[in-house]
Design goal:
It is built from five helices and eight strands, in the order βαβαβββαβαβαβ. By secondary structure, it is of the alpha/beta class. It has an eight-stranded mixed sheet with strand order 1-7-8-6-5-2-3-4, with helices on both faces. The two termini are 30 Å apart. The protein binds S-adenosylmethionine.
Length: 287
Amino acid sequence: MAREKRTATPNVPLMTTTLWDFPSQNYRGGAGRGRQGDSDYAGATPSYVIWNLLQRYTREKWLVVDPMAGSGTTLDVARDLNRRALAYDVEPTREDVFRADARTLPLETGKADFVFVDPPYSTHVKYSGRPECIGELDARRGHAYYEAMEKVILEIHRVLKPERHMALYVSDSAKKGSPLEPIGFKLFSMLSQLFLCEDIVAVVRHNKSLARQNWHDAAAQGNFFLRGFNYLFIMYKPKPAKKVSARSGHGAPKKKRGGRSKKKTSSRAGTGHPSTRRPKGRRSDRD
Ligand SMILES: C[S@@+](CC[C@H](N)C(=O)[O-])C[C@H]1O[C@@H](n2cnc3c(N)ncnc32)[C@H](O)[C@@H]1O
């Protein structure tokens, strides 16, 4: 049987603003499976999003980790780009996704070069129904959803190498008759405790319900909005601050009495954040 011809380098646009939109859920071709994840998997991530992230924040052979992998879109994009990849899920859908809870990953500390995560957005999609599934937790009821997501974020921070990036893709939760649940802002606030913000992107949503005219009619008549975008929070893990011994005397620069230190500072100075030491060709290694 003739082998299917695959395009090794699909024509995927590299986004240059913080508003990302794509012609379809997945790009065509690719050197690996020839497709990315499963577009019929409810809640699958558009592969263009992951492609753009890996192009900018990773290099060939680097290890990409997805702790909530679903249909494995991250694995396929990573392989198309010749990155190594590890994927986990509480209910694996394929053999190369390992069964694990994203709050306790079977991975050593500081191993990942990049982490991508697209978690459940409260109870919007029914996944496996397993008790460990965070999609069973209603973000409007108590603190369980946010406590679980805080553990996921802490675990991502643990497995990620310093001076590397992670990205979290999420939408807010709107429910008729209830105030908006700003999941994005709340998760961003948790991320900011551990990481520096590289950027915030709005990704245009193209899910099936948004294609239905009756949904738009209902939104106009009922005076509410449909969720038109997902947040993509791109965060950077700085290198750990050097421990300063009390006796060494190499502490913070001494302030002049009654005045400020003359040393120029910015919130990112000395953190090793990429914006303080750009660029040296590190931003993109387009193949
Ligand atoms: C939005 S989907 C991910 C979609 C995926 N990026 C893709 O492209 O197919 C969220 C996934 O999180 C998984 N999940 C929920 N709770 C989890 C947990 N505690 N640990 C690991 N995975 C979990 C669900 O099973 C589901 O597959």
